[in-house]
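Project outcomes to date are best conveyed with an example. Our students and postdoctoral researchers have been running inverse folding experiments weekly, and each run begins with a structure described purely in tokens. The record below, which covers 97 residues, was selected by the lab manager from last quarter's runs and is presented without edits.
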């Protein structure tokens, strides 16, 4: 199985609220922009965690044991990547997109 010793830092709803307030207080983003930006970061993190913590170990297991629907798992990975792509564009990450 894939070694899961390393993990991504948590980004909680509380972290999101703090970041929104800091971005607004410094005049970096409007309330709406900060909301979209931090919502995107939260959802991107969730999708990335889903890919690396759920789908890839499942895919590796399916390939090692020749069990399960491999194409279905690959589809799930693609869908999670599409969700990340949506949030990248919605929050204009990177700028100009």
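After processing, the design step wrote out the following sequence:
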């Amino acid at each position: 199985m894939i070694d899961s010793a390393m993990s991504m830092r948590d980004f909680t709803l509380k972290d999101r609220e703090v970041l929104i307030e800091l971005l607004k207080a410094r005049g970096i983003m409007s309330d709406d922009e900060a909301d979209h930006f931090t919502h995107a970061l939260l959802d991107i993190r969730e999708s990335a965690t889903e890919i690396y913590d759920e789908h890839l170990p499942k895919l590796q297991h399916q390939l090692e044991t020749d069990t399960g629907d491999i194409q279905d798992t690959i589809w799930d990975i693609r869908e999670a990547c599409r969700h990340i792509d949506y949030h990248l564009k919605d929050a204009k990450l990177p700028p100009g997109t």
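The longest helix spans residues 31-65. DSSP finds three helices and no strands in the chain. The training component of this project remains on track.
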